[in-house]
Amino acid sequence: MATTKDGPGRSPTAMTDQIAPGEQRERINHMPGAGTERAEAISAGRREMLADTRRLQLKSLAERGLKRPRIGADAVCEALLRQGADVVFGFPGGVLLPLYDVLGDYPELRHILVRHEQGAAHAADGFARATGKAGVCLATSGPGATNLVTGIGNAMLDSVPMVAITGNVVSSLLGKDAFQEIDITGITLPCTKHNYLVRDPNEIPRIFAEAFHIAQTGRPGPVHIDLTKDALMGACTAEHPDKVDLPGFKPNFEGHPRQVKLAAQEIARAKRPVILAGHGVLISEATAELMELAEKAQIPVAHTLLGVSAIDEANPLSLGWVGMHGWKHVNKAVQSADLLIALGMRFDDRVTGHVPTFAPYARIVHVDIDPAEIGKNVAVEVPIVGDVKRVLQALIPLVEPVSAETRKEYFDELAEWRRESEKAPWHGSGAWRNGQLSADFVVERIGAASDHDATIVADVGQNQMWAARYAGFKRPNSHISSGGLGTMGYGLPAAMGAAVGRPDKETWAIVGDGGLQMTSQEMMTLVQDRIPVKIALLNNHKLGMIRQWQELVYAGNYHSSNLLGPDWCKLAEAYGIPGFQASTPDEVDAAIASAQAVDGPALVEFIIAAEQNVFPMMPAGKGLSDLLEEQFEEPKQ
Amino acid sequence: MSAIDPAAAGSASRPAPAHTAPPARPLPGDGRSHRHVLVAIVLNRPGVLNRVASLMRARNFNIETLAVSHTDQPEVSRMTLTLQGDDVAVEQAAKQLYRLIDVLKVQDVTSDPIVEHEIALIKIHASDRNRGEVLTIAEMYKAKVVDLAAESLIVEATGTETEVDALIALLRGFGIKELVRSGTVVMSRGTGSIEEAVKR
Prior knowledge:
The structure holds 2 protein chains of 2 kinds. Chain A is built from 24 helices and 18 strands. Chain A is an alpha/beta fold.
């Protein structure tokens, strides 16, 4: 998308008389680790930034030793730095060149050049989920902007804070079908929390402050800022505001005391309570409060797909994953519960299945910061609008302590269900039917090899379900998955963002051969920007989840689910990434260790059983009690 | 549906007897659809109408009428929407509208004491032969004749949606050439103001 119609010499510096035409400008090498003095300074600046969690003291252009007027593009860079957004995933283009012309003057700002704008959006999303801070992506007008849309929609459905920046044509050409012009604010309107079209450089400071505030406050979400080329190039004198004034955006954080009291009464009455922990627990950083409540009232904690890692799965109070591909014992516990305490989750259809048969004996306490989520999918008895952390802090003192003895019968029964649910003849051995490599074993070994501390980013499909079920999570936000939109191709670029956001943690992308073929070009970004993502490719040469549905629901009509792929190890090596392969259970650990030993990105291709399904499975339109399960055959010797 | 029966499983509590099927969980809302009137106080910014209309379409709500205008505060506009739905569905629409950053306040005024009006202009075939009849009907509905030509006249009617509906039904017999309605606007009765809370 880097095409431009503009002639040479139109950069803002060229328009001023500070630098004479034809005069050589300083060449800026922005490549990390390139061995130049400049690159070293950039790395040093970045390390300093990471150490300083407070907002940066902004340096003016003069303090940076630059003799040129401040333009809109400078205001963009300053605004990002003020927000502590020190990483931008982007791809340049004609109308963005004024911004790229000044980016080098802000060495603290790390720009990561992706290979496709969708990768930029997913990387910003992964960055945001790993750090809790808004991720930033940048793309040019027209096709650059439309390529971001999938990633923006993904962030919208999963409540991920993101600021997506696009360029647009000069404002006098807006609406004239100019080159690379599209009504991108019209396109992102329904899939953003808010969006802006900026034509005036002096509006940039205010709008960026508002955008970050909206993206990160209350229920997070993506905010899109579309900047016309003249807004980027024009002189900017406006100062950055310290406060935002948004009369129409006032999320309610504290739960209503009367409702909180009612919730405590429900908990006191309940004999078979279950907590459903969703993404909101992680977003509001309420994992400690969640455990406090669970321990005080002895309540087992189930989690949704996006709630994975909200609780240490090794904790005896952790019940497991609920929903369509959740554990049978968890779904059973929900179906027999007399009280559901839903924290920061939205009763997605992948959780409830057929609503009239969902948790038929349960009364429901529903805590969510978004009032529109309350009563949207299921009717609830005690709605509480508020931030999960604050509501729990208010609720816990009101809850009567319950002894483990009181709940013994209940917990014994759950444990019995769990033993039955977790048994599978191949499980733990790594060999599925006929000794073929079992995907769940691979995922389990990756979890173990990284001491359950790595950030594990899933793609979409069977690999995603296996990752959530078997990797074993204990650290909050160590599981990253595209839940709402279910975006294939998410895994690799999101892992890239997560690894940049949390360089202190090992990062694994667990992807299928279908999803990886959608965004595999980002392997080059891993190399160029030295991002040490370990790619675990679960290769069944199939669109696995499609094949599974075709087997179970469409009578084995396998249309378009067989998938050719490249020679993955060769492809990785072509990008400069070491590739390893494992096709039997005894090769798995060594392959994982080899990838871990690489100082930088690595790929491991696991040749898994081609026809292994994810069980249990709740068929569409059915309820949590109607799970399809694996039909066991004795493993053939 | 083979729900898991906690009683049969030997549970600590017995929420339902073992021999009865579990009760069906009611879906949100009672399904009793009727007309609702929503008032939205919004920031007077470009695109805000688009945001509201786009949201209602995306969330599968059907707007019957929509009236937008300035208020006495230059930075604030007011929208009046009427739509069909049960109470829970319309509450959901209001909550979704409130999520928009440019929306300051949403109120369902359906059951509040309000003055409700819309204006309609109706152009009717009317010659010397039947003009008197048309005028009589118009007068009964306190409608004004605002244009008079040899073969037609324009009636300006104001009132609630049902009053205007009734007048139109009566005039249809004469042959309506053209009809335009403004959509309902409402205002709360008494000293209270829907806009009060958003005054800054």
